[in-house]
Specification:
alpha+beta; five-stranded mixed sheet; 28 helices; 7 strands; disordered N terminus; protease
Amino acid sequence: MKTNTILSTVICAMLLTTSCKNETETNKTMSDNVLLQDYTGPYGGVPAFDKMSVDLIEPAVLEGMEQGLKDIEAIANNTEAPTFENTIEAMERAGKGLDNVFTYYGIFSSNVSSPEFREVQGKLAPKLSEYSSKINQNEKLFKRIKSVYEASQNNPLPADQQRVVELIYKRFEMNGAELDDTKKKRYAEINKELSTLYNKFSDNVLHDEENYITYLTKDQLDGLSEGFIKSAAKIATDNGKEGMYAITNTRSSMDPFLTYSTNRELRKQVWTNYYSRGDNGDEYDNNQLIADILKLRRERVELLGYKNYAEWRLQDRMAKTPENAMNLMEAVWPAAIARVKEEVADMQAVADAAGDNIEIAPWDYRFYAEKVRQKKYDLDSDEVKQYLQLDKLTQALFYTAGRLFNYKFTPVEEGKVPVFHEDVKVWEVADKDTDKFIGLWYLDPFARKGKRSGAWATTYRSHTTFDGPKTVLASNNSNFVKAAPGEAVLVSWDDAETFFHEFGHALHFFSSNVKYPTLNGGVRDYTEFQSQLLERWLSTDEVINQFLVHYKTGEPIPASLVAKIKKASTFNQGFGTTEYLASALMDMKLHLADPTNIDIDKFERETLAELNMPKELPMRHRTPHFGHVFSGEGYATAYYGYMWADVLTSDASEAFKEAPGGFYDKEVADRLVQYLFAPRNSMDPAEAYRKFRGRDAKIEALMRDRGFPVTTEE
C-alpha cells in the first residue's frame, strides 16, 4: 500500500492550522525545552533526535502554542494597513517553535510510539484543536487576510505571492472564518471532539496490530521461504516466544504468509486478524467512532452551507466535485471486477486440478494467484524476490535520482547526525556537477513495535528562500521485515515498487524551488502522481540490469526472468484495482450518505453488495481500520486521489515511452523536474501538467496500463 501519508501534512489537515511549516524562520525561541529550539549542528542544523523524550512533548507543545498565538496576535493587531509583507509573510514566519516540536511529535506518533506517548497525545489533541480554532477564527487576522486578498484581485501580485494569498484566504474561508459567533463556537467544539476521536481511532488500530500476533510451531511452516522463516523466528524470540515463529498483524508479514503458506486454516486466521483490525467488538472497536466522526463532519460543513463533507472537501482539489471523482472510479470499476471474475476462474481451475476441493475464499486469493502466475507465466514471485535486495534497491533509487535529477547520495558518517533509532541511516544529497548541498535523506526501513504500518514520507525541514535558502531534511519510512543477522533483506516486487513510490515523495521535497512555506503544500489528488510515476523506473532495463542481482551468487537477474516479469505486468490487476477502488468508493459513499443513525458495519456490507463486490477479496482498507480517512482528514473523501493521480501517471509515462531516450530521455526528464516536481504547489496542478505534456491527461493510458478494455474514443 502506497501510504502516502506525509506526516506533517496529515497533522496540518487534522489541525486545520497555518502553523505546519518546519522551514519558517522567526525570532529565536528562548525556551530551555530542546524540542522548541531551532535545529543546531551540521547541515544548517538537524533535529536533536538524541535528546528527545516523551516527557518533553507536552510542555513543548503548550509553550509552542502560547508563542504561536502571540505571533498571530501581533499580526492581527498591527495598526499599519494590511500588506502582503506585514500580514501574509508574517504569517509564514509565525509559530516556528511549535513547528519544531511537530518534528519530534511526528516521530513519537509514527515511528516510536509508546503507551506513555499515546497518553500525552490524547491529552494534547483537544488542546491543539482549540489552538487551531483560535487562529482560524481570529476576526482581526482574517480581516487583514481578506483585505490583502481583495486588493490582489484588482492589482495582482507576483505569481508566487498571488498563489500564497489565494491559498491562505481559501483555507480560512473553508474553515469558518466568516461564520457568525454562534456558529464559530460550534465549529470549534466539533473540531475539538473530532481531534479526540481521530486519536482514539489510531490508538485502537495500533492496539490490534500489536496484540493479534499468530505464533507458529515448526510443523506449520510449509511453503514459507527460508528467509521469511528466519525472520519470523527472530520476531518470536524478541517477543519472548523462543522456538516459535511470529506472523505479525501487519501487511509486510501477512502478505507473504498468505501467498505461500500451504496451511489453509492458518491463512484464514492470519487473514481474519489483519482485516478485523478495529472491528473486534471490544473496547478497541472503531465502528461507533466512525459513525460519530461522520455525523460531526456533516454538521461542521452544514454550518458553512455545504450539503455534505465531500462537496466541501473537493472544491480545491483537481476533481473539484464528488461527481467528477465518482465518474472516474465508476468508469474503471466494471472492468476491474470483470477481471477479478477471470482471475478467480483461473484460480479455481488450479485448485480443482490439484484436488484441493475448495471454493476460493479471500484467504486463498494470494495463494492461488501465485499458482496461476507460475502456471501462466512460469513466474515464481519467490524466485523474483531473490534478486530484490533492499540495499541494492536503495542504490537503484540513487541511480534513478542521479539520471533524472542530477543528484548524488553520500552516506553520512555514523554519529555525525542524531537519529531516533539505530535502524535509521542518513545520506547527504548534493548536485552531481556542482556539489551544491541540497539536503539530508533519512531512511527508517524496518517494522517494529510502536511503528505504524505502511510506508510514508515526511520532511523535518522543507526548502524555502524568502528568509534565505533552507536545505531539505526528508525522510522515507517503510515496514520491511528485518532479516535475521547476516541475512539479506529481500522484498517482493510490490514492496520494491512502494519503495520507489515513497522515494518519489522525497524527490518532490528535494526538488522544490518555492519561496514560501505554504507553496510546499499540495493538492491531495495530485501529490500522489509524482511518487506513482517514479515507480515506473523500477522496471527500466537500466535499473534491472545493474541492481537486480541474486542475494547469494551476485549473478544478474536472467533475461528470461525479466521477460516473464514484463509479460506478467498486467497480471492480478483485477485484484489490485478492485481492492483499492472498493476502499475509495466506500470513502466517498460514506461521506455522501446521511450519517443520522448510520450503522457502519451494515453500510459497508450493503454498499459492497450494491457494487457487486467480488466475495473472494476484501477492500484494501476495511472501514474500521481505514486510517487514511478516520485518523485525521488528510485523505477523507480523497482516497480516490490515487486513481486520479494514476491517470496522470499512465499518461506521463507514455510521454517517456514516446521519447527517443525512453525513460531516461533528458528533454522529457528536464520538463518533468521543471513543471511536475520543482513548482510544488506554486501553480495550479492542471496547468503544470499541461505545460509538461502539452495537453490534459487521458484515461485511456490508465486502461492500457492495466490491461483493461479501452472503450472510449481516442
